[in-house]
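User: If only I could read backbone structure tokens as easily as an amino acid sequence. Those tokens are not coordinates but codes from a learned vocabulary of shapes. Could you go through the record with me and say what the backbone is doing? Here is the record:
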Amino acid sequence: MVHVTYRRSPTAAAVLLLATVAVIAQTSAAEQMMNIAMEDQFRTQHETVTHQGDVVVLVYAERHGAEAALTLGRRLHLQFHPTADSASADAWSKQPVVGLAGWPAGLPVPGVQVIPVASLTEVPRALQAVARARMRKDSPHVPVWLDFEGTLKQMFGIIPGEPNVVVLDTAGRVHSVLSGKFDDQDYAQFVGLLDQLRRAAQPAIRVADQPNGSPVR
């Protein structure tokens, strides 16, 4: 199966989800589960593989795009975890995901893990501790992955001054890479895409070869 990668530039907002480009050279990589690992501002190690079963949205930017990335990440988190809006600061990132209409009862609903990542390649090793301390002050409760090595930039590229997004499906495979500002239409389409990826995790239902044709999972 060929996985489709979407790429959007800041000057071509309409490209998002409207024009698709199949990147054949990346197909074999996209077919495989990818694990991205980084530390946050508290020196806690995180890995995307721990979120298998959920859709993972990595929202990253360098310092000039940090505010826009923060705004987008917060909007997405509240979209899929609306109770976070009234939750305490330390419980903000631990709220339940919204359900999916028609989802089978008793089957766990795939979540959407929105992960903020700060691209800090310009910070020398000697000052990384200072950067962590600053991030702990700015975000005392929500973990922010710190990309000192430029891992996401090397793997997926980065548009300076803009939010950049990598989407992993529920199997941990890269589905989409996007950059640039989201207008309301872009945002609505992107939310729809994330819900499609959640629904794709539902086990296939087949009709058993039985007289009554009862569906069997």
Observations:
- Residues 10 and 166 are 15 Å apart (CA to CA).
- The longest strand covers residues 112-119.
